[in-house]
Amino acid sequence: GDGDELKPVPDAPLESALILAGCHSLVHVDKELVGDPLELEALSAVDWNFSKNDTAVAKKARGSVRPSLRIVHRNRFVSALQRMSVIAVVDNNEMRLLVKGSAEAIKSLLVHVPDGYDEHAASLARKGMRVLALAYRSLEGTLTEAKALSRHDVEKNLVFAGFMAFECPLRPDSRKVIKSLRASSHAVCMITGDATLTAAHVAREAGLTNKPVAVLDDQTLEWISAQTGKRKKRFSAAGITEIANDFALCVSGASLEKASEKDPSVWDYLDKITIFARMKPDMKERVLLAMRNRGLFTLMCGDGTNDVGALKQADVGVALISAPTPQNKPKPKTQKAPVAAKNPTGKPTKSGQTPKPSPQPAPVAPPASAEDPQEALKKRIAELSASLDEDETPMVRLGDASVAAPFTSKAMTIDSCAKVIRQGRCAQATALQMYQILALNSLVQAYSLSVLHLDGVKQGEYQLTIVGFAMTAAYFMMSRSNPLQTLSVERPGRSIFQPSLFVSLLGQFAVHLAVLVWTTTEAKTFLPEDYAPNVDGEYESNILNTVVFLVSTAQQVAVFAVNFRGRPFMEGLMENTWLKRVLAFCFALVAVSLTEQMPEVNTLLQLTTFPNQTLRLQVAAAVTLDLGLCFAWDRLMRLLLF
């Protein structure tokens, strides 16, 4: 019919349908068809069944015949070649090579390139679609002779069978996560194997940039507008910073390689590039390594074996597991769905709706013998391994991405990256706060147990037990604060010796020390004239021991209250219910003992009654002043020195 007519995928020409139904790497495992989600969707959309004996049969007849094919040999997908192929017997009488791959890779193998080939591929890519070119050729001779041919010899003189375009809708949370990352002072970029125009469209849709995208052409080394195709500027490494002010920059693996040959300093400007497209696994690894060499801290997430090298080079790697699980099973209506194709004349056809999910393909013909499923799977793996060319890089096994990355997520969403950052910031902030609190409490206790010990200051068994248990519980409760869901522009410190933290620590210790010296000096005036410190004797209750216990306990509460900051990295003190309760208990213990509202508590703690109201007020004022001065000093240092 009319070459410009848009058609649903199930109505694609037979040559295109044969490639979609037969050129894939899908396998049956435990009665389930597994493999690349795109290939699963393509098989479902074209409306064919694929059985365990590598036979595919159309669900509906074309005319009086139901087309079928049987795969007899596979040439796996290789990133360097950007294509895969299979040898299949079609309708039990014709041996045919079925090939699919990137538009540019297939173009060089065609015996005749249709008019408008590049324009159609670019048009689909600009809409954010993943475009695969389909091609085939008939093979002469025997099956053994065909298998013996190298890929270079067999994958040539192909006949174009159309384009297959997959619309890849963004996950609902992708734009929100990227916005959050950019707002929290993180530079976000995309590194992918997709075509440059597809990647440019997805980057803008995902919110990686609000600027127009300029693509570095790998032939002319000129920056070209991804939207209009107009040339903007000749490439120069020194000019990258200038053009990055007006455009989001996109480079392919080929253009980056060519640019580095012209000017190796281009690797020093990778932080100015937003989109890395058509990247082979080794190029992804080089990009991450170059960023690390420049002193940048990198986090990468990837879901494929092509990402293994890059995940290893990143400071933090997050592997996204795409295998179906009860929590993460692909749904045809929400996952990447095929939406467009072209007929062999090179003119577009398009599906008007998302393909409906089809039932699990049923075997068309049973295997010749009742073979154990595990043995059949081992046989299939052996066949695929034997089909590898000796000069090619060995295939990375499924699951190696999760081995290469320190973090693995079963949820196929980039929110996993934000979770890692939130948890990391929370852990870092907790560790620094813990060190600061431990340091201050240790310094205060060191003064109490050394200098004051010479004045006969001791603590009773109940005092040590109750306060010790309470402080231990407080340390444990610090870890109960959850990370905040919103990432902050501010970042936690890297070390306790960071100026704001270290100067704050010294200032707070000076305040605590001054308060202890002041209160102990006042308490000594109320000791008997014949008082002689008994350093090695048993604990004896007196006003000096009582004042030191109350002040030091209040100071430990103040240390937690001042230095447990919480926000903006995790829940604050008011949201950490258990820590708040522990500190409130300690504060209430000091208040009740100081005011002597419950004499039983003072008796239990072996505290002495205050000789007059003046000393009681002085201790209360000292405790309040200690907390207020420490809080003010800490916040001032964070404001001035952060």
Give an account of the 3D structure.
- By secondary structure, the chain is α+β, with helices and mostly antiparallel strands.
- Helices cover 42% and strands 16% of the residues.
- The chain has 21 helices and 20 strands.
- The strands form 4 sheets. A 9-stranded antiparallel sheet has the order 3-4-5-6-7-8-9-18-19.
- α15 runs antiparallel to α18 and α18 (543-563) packs antiparallel against α19 (577-595).
- It is elongated.
- The two termini are 70 Å apart.
- Mean pLDDT is 80; it is low at 1-6, 323-371 and 386-398.
Helix content: 40-55%
The share of residues in extended strands comes to 15-25%
Q: How many strands, which pairing sense, and closed or not: the largest β-sheet? A: 9 strands, antiparallel
Oligomer: single chain
Give me the side-by-side strand order of the main sheet. Answer: 3-4-5-6-7-8-9-18-19
Would you count the extended β strands for me?
20
Low-confidence regions: 1-6, 323-371, 386-398
Distance between the termini: 70 Å
Indicate the radius of gyration in whole angstroms: 35 Å
Mean pLDDT: 80
Number of helices: 21
How are the SSEs ordered, and which strands pair?
Layout: H1 14-22, E1 27-29, E2 32-34, H2 37-46, E3 48-50, E4 55-58, E5 68-78, E6 83-90, E7 94-101, H3 103-107, H4 117-126, E8 129-138, H5 143-148, H6 151-154, E9 159-167, H7 174-183, E10 190-191, H8 196-206, E11 213-216, E12 222-225, E13 231-234, H9 240-244, E14 248-252, H10 253-262, E15 273-277, H11 281-293, E16 299-302, H12 308-313, E17 316-320, E18 337-342, E19 348-350, H13 373-386, H14 400-404, E20 407-409, H15 415-449, H16 461-478, H17 499-524, H18 543-563, H19 577-595, H20 599-604, H21 613-641
